[in-house]
Write a structure and sequence with these properties.
alpha/beta; 4-stranded mixed sheet; 426 residues
Amino acid sequence: MKKDVYPSILKGEIKAPGSKSIAQRMVAAALMAKGKTVLYDYPDSADCQAALQVAQSLGAVVTKVGNEVTIQGGFPQNFQTGIRNPKPQIFCGESGLASRMFTPIAALYSEAIKVEGEGSLLTRPFTEFDSVLPALGAECESTAGKLPIRVKGPMLGGKASLDGSVSSQFLTGLLMALPKASNNSKIEVQNLTSIPYVKMTMEVAGLFGVEIKHTNYETFTVKSNQAYQPLKVAVPGDWSGAAFLIVAAAIASEEGVTITNLSNDITQADSRILEVLEKAKVHFTIDKKGLFVKQSEIEAFEFDATDCPDLMPPIAALAAFANGVSTLKGAKRLVHKESNRSKALQEEFGKANIRVVVRDDEMMVYPSHIRPAILNSHNDHRIAMAAALLGIGGDKISVMGAECVSKSYPDFFEAMQSIGAKISGK
């Protein structure tokens, strides 16, 4: 799919999509909660649909009517009765979170289960599970450190150590699963990145009645045989998706845009976009109605996105409109995403006359007059949305492979059109 994006004048009000990060964690908790959980405002993204499919494969009864999802959980349980045995495979699509989170949960089952995925997920690292899951009592065999992975439990709990430098999603999976293990657990973590995402995990587990303790995010202790409690809850708005709306308003809305459905009730790393706005001297206000952002003279800025790497594509786009060179830290965290985002931003922004230089962990963005260009999404939803921002605030940009936005924000282009963006193509 190609989308042609033209310079636009934005205004109005728009609702942020639901958080896929929180939604997937809630699905995992609902799977393990005995009873009926209802999730309102459930996102329609591909990753969120993959999480529902995995929950079904692991025994839950899932029904979806519009944006309301009902999950009858209580799994894993004693499968001696043969009732609702898990399927021998779970398919995670291209979701890094679903695959890394549900792998330890699958390891709670006494049956052998293969964890599979597709696309770029097949190239992403999963080596941590090869040593960690056996240390906790489960069998685990990856494919040279990648998917597919075969696990067989039950995972009993105990002590293990984990390198958290590649992704916090490995730890998220363990923290979600270990409360259901038969033994208390202690996980030592070195070099943990994306601490806000781990906080999110613990907060979601807490909503469902499960307690996880930590010491300086280096040692995590999990009591065994805890019970996830079913509940009825709305999925909060997504700061990750909203970041693209926010940047679009900052570069192309003289009247301003109000983004609703955003809160900090559950920790979201990408709410730090507000710090970026402050550093870049973007005019914004927050009130009961929502976040109001207005077109501003963008100041060059510095920002460390190590703990919020998903912000790098939208803030790199913001930096393209600044009055000087901006320096962004955390480039190393971009390598193992849906694409190598560090390389993709260099290549695609360069086509539009925006020079991006990466040195070790730093990314420097050199603003210039944006010229018309055809940019490749690299089958990466955040690269596609960042490319669109260059068109909205600069000159015509054709985004090739634009359908990949379905991974996190299926109606991104329609949402942008609703506030005035000029977009064509199918």
